[in-house]
Specification:
Elements (H helix, E strand, L loop, with lengths): L1 H7 L9 H8 L3 H7 L3 H17 L9 H14 L1 H9 L7 H21 L6 H22 L7 H10 L3 H7 L1
Helix pairs in contact: 1-2, 4-7, 5-9, 7-8
Length: 172
């Protein structure tokens, strides 16, 4: 992943090849393909891993939803150039924005299930989760693309304030 990020600093994502990634770090393509089906699989794996690290902190040492949102906003800010490259140079089934929505939905859904102790979410709660994730990811993408010039704290505040009422019982 580190190699991919280094290459992505110099090249648009859609122009990066597996050879570029493996040559940069000294691994073989065979090693890469043992772990990932393509560069998009690598991108998703990395994003899932980073998001999971943040969301799994909810409840640890009194860590609440607000702190989780702030950590996420700071991560987006730290990776803004890289994320902008992903948004501008991925599309179709491999669209980074599309994958972000699915990842956020899956993580938030799983978090609610863990907090509530339920086995499954009812359809309305699942729809609230989907709506919240789609809206926040669209806002994140706009923020990354400099549509909104606010600091990470303000972005996290908007995320917190937009949490649908039926989901507040799990996080606030």
């Amino acid at each position: 992943m580190e190699s991919f990020r280094e290459v992505a600093e110099k090249k648009p994502i859609d122009k990066i090849t597996v050879s570029d990634i493996t040559e940069n770090c000294g691994y073989s393509k065979t090693t890469f393909y043992r772990l990932f089906k393509d560069k998009y699989d690598l991108i998703v794996w990395d994003y899932v891993r980073r998001q999971r690290q943040i969301i799994e902190q909810i409840g640890n040492s009194g860590r609440g939803w607000k702190r989780t949102l702030l950590d996420e906003a700071f991560l987006f800010n730290e990776q803004k150039g890289y994320l902008k490259n992903l948004l501008l140079h991925t599309n179709g089934l491999d669209s980074f924005a599309k994958n972000m929505k699915q990842i956020h939905f899956h993580n938030l859904r799983k978090c609610i299930l863990n907090i509530s102790g339920m086995q499954e979410l009812d359809i309305k709660t699942e729809m609230y989760v989907r709506m919240y994730c789609q809206g926040t990811v669209d806002l994140i993408c706009d923020w990354i693309m400099d549509v909104y010039n606010v600091d990470p704290e303000e972005l996290a505040e908007v995320f917190e304030n937009c949490l649908p009422q039926p989901l507040r019982q799990y996080f606030l």
